[in-house]
Write a structure and sequence with these properties.
alpha/beta, Urease, subunit C, domain 1, TIM Barrel, 2 domains, four-stranded parallel beta sheet, 10 helices, globular
Length: 393
């Protein structure tokens, strides 16, 4: 079930954060929506009185897996995954929580692409999706069961082409092993530099950006040198675990490459803090990783890796506060990572990520000021996605 067709809306009495500025715009105003777009000036349409609530751009989660059921204790090592009905239910939960854009970074059988297209046609409710299709991986490498195995430059170029032929918006490459695939190690690279270079070059030739799953330090370095757009996780994993092999020279390589880091901080990270908020060893190590990335000028994009065990798809609004705590971000910096910065990283800056005439009417209206307290994101009053009302309190 989708939502009603786009309409003319006048969202009256809102305080506005435009997605880029350090502060709210002064006073209260009326945001005008016609069809799927924000427009300047008054409109003759449904008027919704919002009485000082804060409007901000809809949020973007840059790393999700809609085909995965987070209630499962592990990812099955075969091609199985949930069908479209279950995926559609997750997509609806996401948009109702204020997540109006997302990047699906892998699953079997290109199911997420079908979901993407049905959402775009208004047949189903959900966020705007960018989809990677089958992630590129080494033989029996991380997530091999999704069908993206390849070895050598020529094979990897062919896997990239196959994703594009199926309509993929971007390319995902597993530069290291992963936690959830037996027989692989997060710390160990899966591809040589020439292989990663070939995959990224082929994606670029076909007009697609590349996201690289990277835990180990050497894999991070190779991905940065290959020119990937986003480095997922960026965990600097080594013998002492995640964050245990931080290398400032590699941090510098990331900065020089102009890559974005997508740290996949989700609500599960709460377990790395004591009840009094004191960070444990994992949180301390990863906090230092994020600190050094920030000092080097590496930009972040908000992400959760939702779909993996115990990481629900709709909880980015809650996870942003944890991300801000770990990375020592001001609320406005965390919000930019989920709005205007995310749009820029994903190539959507001319479509969404800010509140401005001509951009998509992707809006989250909340009770409270999220620039003062990110907890306001958990009090949605209204969600508009491409001009359609997705949630109303």
């Amino acid at each position: 079930m989708g939502y009603d067709a786009p309409m003319a809306l006048a969202l009256a009495g809102v305080r506005v954060w435009d997605g880029a500025s350090d502060t709210l715009r002064p006073g209260r105003e009326t945001l005008s929506v016609v069809g799927e777009r924000l427009v300047a000036g008054p409109v003759d349409g449904e008027r919704i009185e919002l009485d000082g609530a804060v409007a901000l751009p809809g949020l973007c989660d840059a790393h999700v897996h809609l085909s995965l059921d987070p209630a499962r204790r592990e990812v099955a090592q075969d091609a199985s995954a949930d069908g479209l009905d279950a995926m559609a239910a997750r997509a609806r939960q996401m948009v109702e929580a204020g997540i109006t854009s997302a990047r699906d970074l892998g699953g079997p059988e290109w199911r997420a692409l079908e979901l993407r297209d049905r959402i775009a046609r208004g047949e189903l409710a959900g966020p705007r999706l960018l989809c990677a299709g089958q992630p590129l991986t080494s033989p029996r490498g991380h997530c091999w069961y999704w069908g993206g195995e390849g070895q050598g430059a020529d094979e990897l170029r062919a896997v990239v082409r196959r994703q594009v032929e199926h309509g993929a918006d971007c390319i995902k490459v597993m530069a290291t092993g992963g936690v959830l695939t037996r027989g692989t190690s997060p710390a160990i690279p899966q591809f040589g530099q020439d292989e990663l270079d070939a995959a990224v070059d082929e994606a670029r030739r076909l007009g697609r950006h590349t996201a690289a799953h990277c835990h180990g330090t050497e894999g991070i370095l190779r991905a940065a040198r290959a020119g990937v757009r986003t480095i997922e996780h960026c965990s600097f994993a080594g013998e002492e675990g995640f964050g245990g092999a931080l290398d400032l020279e590699v941090v510098g390589e990331i900065a020089r490459a102009g890559a974005w880091v997508s740290p996949t901080v989700n609500t599960g990270f709460a377990r790395f803090f004591a009840e009094d908020g004191t960070p444990g060893k994992f949180a301390t190590r990863m906090g230092e990783v994020y600190t050094q990335l920030r000092r080097a000028g590496v930009p972040f994009v908000a992400s959760t890796d939702s779909g993996i065990p115990n990481v629900a798809h709709h909880r980015l609004p809650e996870a942003l506060a944890l991300f801000a705590r770990l990375a020592e971000l001001r609320p406005v910096e965390a919000l930019r990572a989920a709005t205007s910065d995310a749009a820029l990283a994903l190539g959507l800056e001319r479509t969404t990520g800010r509140i401005a005439p001509g951009l998509a009417a992707d809006l989250l209206v909340v009770d409270g000021d999220p620039l003062e307290d990110l907890g306001a994101l958990l009090r949605p009053v209204l969600v508009v996605a491409r001009g359609r009302i997705a949630f109303r309190a």
